[in-house]
Amino acid sequence: MKVALLGCGVVGSQVVRLLHEQADDLAARVGEPLELAGVAVRRPQRHADIPAELLTTDAAALVARDDVDIVVEVIGGIEPVRSLLLDALRGGKSVVSANKALLADHGAVLHDAATSAGVDLYYEAAVAGAIPLLRPLRESLAGDRINRVIGIVNGTTNFILSRMDATGAGFDEALAEATALGYAEADPTADVDGYDAAAKAAILAGLAFHTRVTASDVYREGIGEVTAADLASAKAMGCTVKLLAICERTTGPGGDPAVAARVHPAMIPRAHPLAAVGDAFNAVFIEAAAAGSLMFYGRGAGGAPTASAVLGDVVAVARNRVSGSRGTGDSAYAELPVQPMGDVTTRYHVALDVSDRPGVLASVAGAFAEHDVSIQTVRQEGRGDAATLVIVTHSAADAALAKTVDRLTGMEFIRRVASVMRVEGMPGD
User: Fold this and answer.
1) What's the DSSP call for residue 213?
2) Segments forming the whole domain that contains residue 390
3) Whole-structure pTM value
4) Given 2, 93, 100, 200, the catalytic residue
5) How far is the C-alpha of 400 from the C-alpha of 368, rounded, in Å?
6) pLDDT the model gives residue 300
């Protein structure tokens, strides 16, 4: 069973190592030996540990070889990867990918190509690294109804927020520490602005709700605006702050079923299991009608953990080829509409720098009531020119909260809307 590997960086090099070190066990599990047919790289001279006859700079020629059975892609990006994988699938080769951005935006065309050719497209490593998550959604829970998926799916942002919570550091300081330790890339935009998590949320929502969801369907906010003051305020409420991916089965304005998918920082109670997920770890809760709540936890990134997920997929698709069968493919029969963020309901934490004088609280409460946003708690911090009102609401539509904030911004006695953050996982949610 011949495997073509596209890319040999942090993850790809570990795939090569595991294929070599576990060759006998993998052969026993598959029913045939797994053999590297070739490794496509940009700079062969950087890979002296791989036999020269396996290295090539011509990825298209490697994919087109008649003797290749499985193409493994760990390059990342959209093109030329999209074209290479489509050629592989249309050529009758099964594909294993770790490319969340590609799957989130172009999963439909790749799945269609796999279905037409009668081959497999697996991508467990695209979400949450080593954690077995996608296959349980696609197969183990296929007989259940998934209502909600919520979790921490980006290790870099989780490390940053964990350090801010533990040390009182600001965002820039925590990001610098994450970069120095290798948790953050030199350009951390994809992580800290939420793009990475949004791509993963799209994949999770599609599998959970049998609906094709793309990254552009996912509401996205990053953590760049989260401050040490936000973490301190969360701590005062018995909460912490996490960047959450939340995918829900919900109801549209007409009462018809819909899907909501969002990524944003949120306060969660310290008693919530996700609050204890620290450093660069990932954790995801799945809430199912019959199975109840299930939690998946582990390392969400790194060469060896991600390679473990890649090899798991390779074994699965190789077994299918040996037996002449095909695994579970795309399931998008439900075709549920994606609900706009404005219609999504949740709770909110709003901090207002205000003038400390009579009537201010009544006027603020009136602004919330004007837009049907119910207040759960109010507390004042400081006095005089340093006064801050901290308000936590009951569940309200996002659009209603936005209108409330606009109204507050225009009030003369409010110096600044210091912070607006969603609150998840509170009792009664």
Assistant:
1) -
2) 344-423
3) 0.95
4) 200
5) 9
6) 84
